[in-house]
Prior knowledge:
The structure holds two protein chains of two kinds. Chain A is of the alpha/beta class. Chain A folds into two domains: 5-100 and 163-235, P-loop containing nucleotide triphosphate hydrolases (Rossmann fold, 3-Layer(aba) Sandwich); 236-269, no CATH class. Chain A contains eleven helices and ten strands. In chain A, the strands form two sheets. A six-stranded mixed sheet of chain A has the order 6-7-8-3-9-10, with helices on both faces. Chain B is an all-alpha fold. In chain B, strand 1 and strand 2 (137-139) form a beta hairpin. In chain B, helix 2 runs parallel beside helix 4 (94-116) and helix 2 crosses helix 9. The longest helix of chain B has 32 residues, at 3-34. At the A-B interface, helix 2, strand 6 and helix 3 of A face helix 6 and helix 7 of B. Adenosine-5'-triphosphate (ATP) is lined by residues 16-17, 20, 22, 40, 42-48, 60, 94, 204 of chain A.
Amino acid sequence: MAGTALLDVNNVEVVYNRTVQVLRGLSLRVPEGEIVALLGSNGAGKSTLLKAVSNLLSLEDGDVTAGAIRFRGDDIASLTPHGLVRRGLFHVMEGRRIFEDLTVEENLTAATFALTGRDGASPDFDLVYSYFPRLHERRKGLAGYLSGGEQQMLAIGRALIARPSLILLDEPSLGLAPKLVEEIFGIIARINAEQRVSMLLVEQNAAVAFAVASYGYILEMGKVVIDGPVEKLMRDQDVREFYLGLGGAGAERSYRDIKHYKRRKRWLS
Amino acid sequence: MDMLFLAEVALAGLGAGALYALTGVAFVLIYKATRVVNLAIGEILMLGGYAFLGFAAGLGLSPWIALPLAIAAGGVFGWVVERSLIRPMLGENPISVFMVTIGLGSILAGAVQLAWGADPLRLPEFLPGTPIFIGDAYLAPKVAFGFAAAAVVIGLFLALFRFSRGGVALKATAADQGAAYSVGIDVPRVFSIAWILACATAAGAGVLVGAIGGISPTMGVFGLSVLVVVIIGGLDSLAGALVGGLLIGLVEALAGTFLGGEFKLVVTFALLLVLLMVRPYGLFGTHEIERL
Lengths: 269, 292
Ligand SMILES: Nc1ncnc2c1ncn2[C@@H]1O[C@H](COP(=O)(O)OP(=O)(O)OP(=O)(O)O)[C@@H](O)[C@H]1O
Ligand SMILES: [Mg+2]
């Protein structure tokens, strides 16, 4: 992972309520253009790291007590959460967090505030609808009435409106049927390739994360325990056993289509 | 029963109710954006009345210049209060913030009394005086003007809220602050704007209320009726403030006329109790009313 990183997290420690330490010297990098996967069991601190990066941690009485987080080389400590979004760092939060009492269109309108202060950037609703035609059909309806999958699409659609250079995606597969997971991850891979957006992807579903990512980190108790290129992680015996749920040999056949897309993207770029 | 008399009482009630609704809208704006139950809203309304008096009688300006100045003074006051008192307390116990607004209210009432004395004062006449008849029913012209002004301003707020980008930002902030930040909304700015608009509106309502009934350092009790209005309508519903305001105005006028003035409050609070038992969120509210 040589070269300049879009996101550089260096030895970060996070404490909640001035008492509970959750991250213990975590370091990771997201290079320009890549999808980086961040895996780990429940409570490992994955969402906490994303909140630290987007500066939303302060809303939950969490503090970065050591280390540094740099986005495009700038320390984020002095930036406001909305300021960071306006600079191109968009956090799709865990649980989707769409505005249920607003229409689909108003949810996208809310995200146009991310373009404040960026000259020449006008919101492109059609781009969102081209990736997610179902959102177009339901644009006048209340977002609260969307299905779980459609709500996830809306959460990603809001990110697209903001034209970010980095998206932090927190468990987009949460609570979705396998078929839908495949569809959404196919679109995530396309967005990465076509819009040149880098992503830091938090997942429980390692198989699908590895299908789109090029590099992975595995987190335990607030620290990185294993990291490496996805091909290497997939050969790692522990990773296979604990994260991919594969005991012996048996190659992983699922998510073939997404992988196919990933190969094509490599070839494109 | 004389139908004409009943109609006149009802019209006067709706006129008063429109001003409740207008002040209720101010209250709701603040609650929606910052989740602060602002008990000083009645005193901010009072401040609007005295500011108008100061500009019109004190500085001798034309009432039509003094009116926008009084509204602007309310806005500036809201901005200062939000930045200096409310924002540092956000995230703290809602009861502490609630107490701060009570304190603010008494300070305002005290300050006004120091500056202008305790006696009720009349505002310079500036509203049209030709009697208005709706059918055969007489309506005091000032009340009619207050009703019309309130209707226009509330209509404007409802439209802004529904159709403007700023309205989306306010609704998003009200629904989920963290998510609002995460899509790039400047949440603290939403707080500021909500307080500025709300306090300007309350100050404007204060000029109307004062033009009809005069001003005094105790006119902040108007805020009590407004509190009932927004609890009935739902603390976070603009439409609720509108309906609740008209309803309370009407009920107070009818109770005051047919049962006697001392029954006004009893009937209003009885209505409030019954409604809260049936609908704990108020008529249109979505949020559980905070237990204070
Ligand atoms: N606001 C908070 N205040 C206090 N502790 C918190 C807070 N948020 C998270 N924690 C604690 O921090 C630890 C890590 O939480 P985090 O949400 O980062 O885990 P995660 O890796 O995202 O887990 P999951 O896969 O279940 O989403 C947990 O033990 C959790 O209880
Ligand atoms: Mg999580």
